[in-house]
């Protein structure tokens, strides 16, 4: 397992992985509006623009040179994407990706918490990572999520 920052060239395969996993595990729980909102958020041109401006940071986990999982952070400490291919679930990849973000936040010294708006599918995984709910499930533009945070 190898966790590394992603480059601009890695973004297309990362977004393909994200969309594949989303469609299999998340989309069945979302309305058409939510699915379209997610697709809009992950439009390649917009993601590249945010990446180049430093508004989004991505890390990937590779196993045998295959991208197995991806995490993205905005505003230094808000996880906005965390997806792992189905065949790599329950192997510690999400935890390893999260630990990369955790280390990055801890090294700054000015971050007191990491936040995420967890999809219904991922709530239990985030609880296992140490996140706590800060509110009940909400829906905005068709996207269902539970706000959560991890205190450093």
Automatic annotation (TrEMBL):
Q: What is this protein called?
A: GCN5 family acetyltransferase
List the signal peptide residues. Answer: none
| Entry-linked InterPro entries | Acyl_CoA_acyltransferase (IPR016181), GNAT_dom (IPR000182), N-acetyltrans/Recomb-assoc (IPR052564)
UniProt keyword terms in alphabetical order:
Transferase
Q: Outline the extent of the N-acetyltransferase domain.
A: 1-152
| SUPFAM superfamilies reported in the protein's UniProt record | Acyl-CoA N-acyltransferases (Nat)
Q: Which organism is it from?
A: Leptolinea tardivitalis
Q: Name one GO molecular function term.
A: acyltransferase activity, transferring groups other than amino-acyl groups
């Amino acid at each position: 397992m190898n966790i590394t920052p992603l480059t601009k060239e890695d973004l297309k395969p990362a977004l393909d992985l994200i969309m594949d996993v989303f469609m299999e595990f998340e989309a069945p729980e979302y309305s058409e509006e939510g699915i379209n909102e997610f697709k809009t958020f992950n439009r390649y041109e917009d993601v590249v623009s945010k990446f180049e401006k430093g508004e989004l940071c991505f890390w990937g986990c590779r196993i045998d040179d295959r991208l197995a999982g991806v995490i993205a952070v905005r505003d230094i400490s808000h996880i906005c994407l965390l997806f792992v291919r189905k065949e790599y679930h329950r192997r510690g990849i999400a935890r390893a990706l999260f630990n990369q973000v955790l280390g990055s936040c801890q090294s700054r010294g000015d971050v007191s918490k990491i936040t995420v708006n967890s999809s219904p599918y991922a709530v239990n995984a985030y609880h296992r990572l140490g996140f706590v709910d800060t509110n009940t499930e909400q829906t905005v533009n068709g996207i269902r999520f539970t706000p959560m945070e991890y205190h450093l």
